[in-house]
Amino acid sequence: MPELQQLFNRHCKYIIYLIAIYVLGWGFTSYKTIFMGLILGTSVSLFNHWNLVRKTTLFGEAASSGKKMRSFGTMIRMCSAILAVFIAGKYPNLFDLISVLIGIMTAHAVIIIDFFLQQIFKSHIKREER
């Protein structure tokens, strides 16, 4: 599954760039709670994405060797999102709850945007080959 690892590496790079932008926003604007919420939510989103890629790789290895796998770690991903929301609720002076929720969805948005960009890039290359 090297293509899955390439996808994850690209997604990881984009998400880390977003976190860097959020850190700059936290440092240079007065919207500190919003950017801290985005940082927390996006960090959890990156962890969940990493966990899913790791479990998918393990599932592929187990399937090719004829073994069974227990789960894809859905509980861990849900618990990490719940923990982030709990932290935001516990410390509302540091984290904005809505920003945490938006941050948790960041990996999904990055995956969708990356998919469309790759499709546009592939169609552009095909047109140049003609």
From TrEMBL:
Which keywords accompany this UniProt record?
Cell membrane, Membrane, Transmembrane, Transmembrane helix
Task: Identify the Pfam families for this entry.
Answer: ATP-synt_I (PF03899)
Query: Where mainly located?
Result: membrane
Under InterPro entries, the record lists: ATP_synth_I (IPR005598), ATP_synth_I_Bacilli (IPR039072)
How is this protein positioned relative to the membrane?
Answer: Multi-pass membrane protein
**This protein's GO CC annotations:** plasma membrane
Q: Which residues cross the membrane?
A: 12-28, 34-53, 74-91, 97-117
- Spell out the subcellular localization from the entry: Cell membrane
Question: Which superkingdom heads the taxonomic lineage of this protein's source?
Answer: Bacteria
According to UniProt, the name of this protein is: ATP synthase subunit I
Provenance organism: Lederbergia citrisecunda
